[in-house]
Structures
1.
Amino acid sequence: MSVASAEWILGEMMQLTVREAAKLLTVSEKTIYGWINQGSLPAYRINEQYRFNRAELLELSTAQKINFSVEIFDQPDNNSATLPRLVPSLEAGGIFYRLGGHDKESVLRAVVESMHLPDGVDREFLFRVLLAREALGSTSLGDAIAIPHVRNPVVLNVQRPSICLCFLEKPIEFGALDRQPVFALFSLISPTVRAHLHLLSRLLFTLHDASFKGAITRQCSREEILNEARRVEDSLPLPAMDREEK
């Protein structure tokens, strides 16, 4: 990756100020500073100011069951491309049941093998990337659900983003803070960092919905899961380009 590309990704991922983070998490700026001082909120000093990784905030809010504002979907738009929607991405990625595996490594390999990917994608490389991410810390969000590679997007040469949902044959220990073994994994593949952040926002917002999470917990049918996701997504603000078209 070039230096210019790395700087662009940094800008995409760490664009939130203290005020914006407080607004997103629907708390006061004083609370944000308190969390920083406690070490419970990841923050980065850039030009003597705190900046936040949007994906890390979303991950934190889900793991700690903190509601976040729908204003997360009104991201600054420097790109005219239409942003992805959750349900079509789930349909593209697929929902799979009874995946085998006895530990993180074997489960992640089974997930990668299940993904709907173009022929040119190196599945072994993708598997190694996911495995390396887990070595940095568990991607479990609690409640037996994990999203491998939450913080750093998997950006591949694909035409459209996808979300693969895999239910495991038996729960696997993932080092979750709530100590619950994981039985459901969502994996995101995106053509751009921006698409990843937008899709991650929609997925994590939907996981705050009790009925949708219940459908995941009960391992409901594909149709039921997609219907629940559609219900929640229909209540969300449309991406900017979609609003303009209407």
Note: Confidence is low (pLDDT under 50) at residues 1-13, 76-80, 240-246.
2.
Amino acid sequence: MSTLQDVRFKLQKRVARLDGVKPDGLGNELIRFFEFFDSNHVLRACGESLHKGFPTIEAQLDEALKKQEMIEGATEAESAAIGQVVLRRFARPNDGHFPFTQYVHFTASIADMLDRFREAFLAPFYEYIDEHIEDRKIVLAELIRFKHLAEWFRSENLWEKWKSDSRSGERRLAFAVYEFLFEQGIDFHIEPASASGEADMVSSQASPNPLVADVKIFDPDSGRNASYIKRGIYQVFRYLQDFHQPIGYLVVFKGTSKQLDLQISGSSTAEVPFFTVGDKTIFLIQIDIYPHQESASKRPIPEREIISEHELRSEIQNSSGT
């Protein structure tokens, strides 16, 4: 089971606990739920992105309460954003009262009112987050498939794309990735520009939320060294800010015998490390297309260029003020 599948499974278990909790246990169970939710970088990024998409929800809720009115979202995303805000408001220790009742129509049964509360706020929030994770999982899974396909069967072809025209070779490699994703049914278009410059790919992923990705070549002999890759990571980070998205991807083709060592803590699989700053997470997919003359077991220890999490985080924070 992949890490993202594992997150979805754990999320389902915690939502099931909320579905079964009694009125006097709701507050404590919500505390535990959001401790789990906020401790996971993917879930936290999804929640932050949702909240930022509807910045007036808090004020709208307060105004509706003053008028003793109910508030409903005009879209699934807005309903989910309302649900998140309301649920977080009640993530506090139980005090013998049932404050959630002010958000639903009154009935003689507290248990019935809790069921209505869960239907109105928990269900849309959970469904939105679950579908959002699934969208991201599909993209990541396809990029992993492309990595295997490229390294096992297409490395010579991709190497030729790079070496036959070093000026446009990187762009040709990028389009090889985009072509593969398109063939897998992932709908995307090339966005001319963002506030930071040209964004290589913006994908809708059956969602109004675009997906940001970029492609770089690691080849120190041509000047595309570790510093160049760091700039690529920062570029993706800027794209995420421009498009208000929580998750992005950097695909790095390794066109050298040298090793690019990513010393970062996050890893969704052995192949795909990730780097997180604030509410932005970047997955880093390395694809080796260099024509090695010897098998991996017989190669000498390669020279390494290192990208450390500390220096990467410092550069991004210093450059962006994050």
Note: The beta strands are 188-189, 201-203, 211-218, 247-254, 259-263, 266-267, 273-277, 280-288, 304-308.
3.
Amino acid sequence: MGAPVTHVEIMGPDRDQLVRFYGESFGWLFEPHDEMTYTMFRTAPGGIGGGIGVPQDGKPSVSVYAEVEDLDATLSQALRLGATGKMGPMDIGGGARIAMFADPAGNVFGLYEGPTGEPPEGAGSPVVWFDLFGPDAVQLQSFYRDLFEWKIDLGDDGYGHIVAEADGVGGGISTPMPGMPSHGILAYMRSTNLEESLKIIERVGGTTVAPRQSVGDGLDIALFTDPAGNLNGLVQRAS
């Protein structure tokens, strides 16, 4: 079985600003860890939660974490496949450890090893999808398939659909859409009304980057930036 993606991390220089933005936009429940300048968030069932924090370099970013059985072995494998170590391994308490690496496109990806019990139920729109993108999608698809044993279904357009593992969310690996950066990671929040969600996002300090558009399979998406400049998305099953 492949490594499930179970946590998303949204970083920016002003944690409190981002907590307010995502709380008002999506109704998440928060658990602050002030000593870490980090705030965990919990969402309604059906997706994953994560954390909002302040990066050491002050630069905004979005990352996702995969749960692995042997963090040291997985990190070593990532480095052998062309990744660059970015952080850790480090203990975070409760018998858990994390590490981070930069993949061949420069995307920073996290690893988690530790307890995997059921998280307490939260509220608001869950994170239900993620996208990894870079200039060489084939290279990235091969890297993550070899590293995590993910099943990746390749579409005619070159989009690699990552099949969700148990307790995690699925995602995709592709080249960037027009107007997007050369590489990055996006988290997608579930919406029941994309237009109304974008109105709320803009009212509390976000910016619409791409309005509603169909991506096939009965799904519509929209893209926005948060106040720190992180690019993320909304997804709605088309009626």
Note: The chain has one domain: 1-239.
